[in-house]
Amino acid sequence: MARVLVAEDDGLTRRFIEETLEYAGHEVTSACNGAEAICAVDSPGCFDAVITDYAMPEATGVDLIAHAQRLDPMISCIVVTAFRDLDLAMQAMQAGAVAFIPKPFKSMHLLTVLDRALERRELADEALRLRFLAPMLERFTMVLANALESKDYETQEHSTRLVGMSDAIARHLGIGDGMRSMIRFGACLHDIGKVAIPEALLRKPDALTPEERAVIRTHPDVGAAILADIDTWEDVRLIVKHHHEHFDGGGYPDGLRGDQIPLGARIVSVVDAFDVMRTGRPYQPARSYDWILEELQRESGGQFDPELVAALIAVMPTEGTTIAVPPLDLQPARRAAVGRRQNDMAIAAWLRGDTTAVRTPTLPA
Length: 365
Ligand SMILES: [Fe+2]
Ligand SMILES: [Fe+2]
Known about the structure:
It is a single chain. The radius of gyration is 31 Å and the shape is elongated. It has two domains: 3-125, Rossmann fold, CATH 3.40.50; 150-357, Hypothetical protein af1432 (Orthogonal Bundle), CATH 1.10.3210. By secondary structure, the protein is an alpha/beta fold. Residues 322-343 and 355-365 have low confidence and may be disordered. It has 16 helices and five strands. Strands 2-1-3-4-5 form a five-stranded parallel β-sheet, sandwiched between helices. The two termini are 48 Å apart. Residues 190-191, 219, 243-244 line the site of one fe (ii) ion (FE2). Residues 190-191, 219, 243-244 line the site of one fe (ii) ion.
């Protein structure tokens, strides 16, 4: 059911249109001249469609359409007229009419044209909503990823940088818009499974014990499980699940090799390693570009897909330029805040199943 404004000065035709629309279940408001019709369209969304005669006293159908379109660009306007004049049709289209019906017409013809016009309105509405929603979703995902990183000060803004570098590689490889968007989301959320890892373990400055390493290694599966219910994000889920697989099969969680590893996961894997080497971690210092280049080449075909190592090198931010690397977040003050001893005790307690010693993540201010 649509709300339709009918503007027609000929009483007989107006009654015919009203009855046709009401019979089809639409809600009709009628006006018998152009000025009255213009007054009736007083706010955006007050009508879904306008069906108007061209020649009416006080204002023409084109005046009415121009007014309605100014107020509500999504409104569907249809012109009915006895004049079979191409210029007039063009004028009406330019004002924003979506259809032009010559008189006399049958009721079925009118209803078919109205239905098509309303369908177009719905599609346009949907497209507009998506245009607003897509960037909002991207922003929200980034906020979520950065909030997660607050568990682990050393990795703050890591996801943001990964999104930029993964996208640059995807663009370099000529990957289409749809998949590139999935890769950006995958890069952003790759470590979302760390939400289940105790903060103390993520911040541990010493080498991890095998038991602790096993706990850390659960994060890709946890992340994939978190995203499992989002049907349209299968590609994102696979990136999250497989971002620690190695090209030679030596990674985790499934030991996939080569092309078995989704392309997005192979991209995120190489940029993740690049960013970790570049910014450093509690257990390893930040490295120079030359050092990283050598390491990437040494691991080409081992940990990383050789094609993607080449792509990363091609788009790699050069020293001190493209990607703003924040100051290393390894200041003693912050590490002291956690406290090594307190940290070790918290890890030991957590491994024993006592979660009271584990601090809850703090959200960024
Ligand atoms: Fe990870
Ligand atoms: Fe990462």
